[in-house]
Amino acid sequence: MNFSEIAKNRQSCRSYDESRAVERGKINAILESARLAPSACNGQPYHLTVCEGESAKAVAKATQGMGMNKFTSSAPVMLVISEKPYVKSAAIGAKLKKNDYRSIDIGIVSAYITAEAAALGLGSCILGWLDDAKIRDICALDAPVRLVISIGYAADDEKFREKKRKNIEELVSFKG
Ligand SMILES: Cc1cc2nc3c(=O)[nH]c(=O)nc-3n(C[C@H](O)[C@H](O)[C@H](O)COP(=O)(O)O)c2cc1C
User: Which of 1, 89, 122, 147 is most deeply buried (CB count within 10 A of its CB)?
Assistant: First the structure.
């Protein structure tokens, strides 16, 4: 798949085939693409924790508060993205320019992860509805958990959905 095909094919997967484990080689390929993501001042202000087995189940539960995200129980892998401190130059830039570069960087690395997962034939879903304290405890992290990404092979009932997006005129303006 070229990038346009990946962009068209990737969707948030909300039903996983529990009987199908994700090969370690594919996890490694996802992590390698994540490693190459750009970030402000190349600071890479995040840490990735790959949860499988019992810890994936526990993290899944911690994304299900108030009846949300029930589908994560079927995901064989839960990838936890926690925030690390800025490098000095990015911290100065963020302060002077009043911009939250860490959130931006975490968004970009998430996009790389989900795009690589799609390229490898895997389903994924970015999860922002999560219990920070519980996941920190499960993963022994001392930094805020910002996003979790569920990863696995899509189950047969996961159908391709037409993308609903702003039309290009609303999304974009050109200036001469
Ligand atoms: C920061 C962020 C947080 C999200 N949190 C959740 C979530 O907690 N649960 C969920 O089912 N989807 C979540 N999503 C997925 C979005 O709902 C989804 O990307 C959007 O509706 C577009 O659909 P698509 O990914 O299938 O193209 C999140 C996406 C992002 C980028």
Answer: 122
Buried b (16+ CB within 10 A) or exposed e, 15-45: bbbeeeebeeebbebbeebbeebebbbebbb
| pLDDT more than 90, % of the chain | 100
Phi then psi for residue 105, to 5 deg, are -60, -40
Residue 14 CA to ligand 1 center (angstroms) comes to 10
Q: Residue 170's pLDDT band (boundaries 50, 70, 90)?
A: very high
Model pLDDT for residues 59-80, shown as the tens digit of each residue: 999 999 999 999 999 999 999 9
**How many CB atoms are closer than 10 A to CB 159?**
8
- The answer, as to whether pTM is greater than 0.90, is yes
Q: State in Å: Cα 107 to ligand 1 middle.
A: 12
**According to the model, what pLDDT value does residue 60 have?**
98
Evaluate: CB of 12 within 6 angstroms of ligand 1: yes
**Domain residue limits, the chain:** 14-154
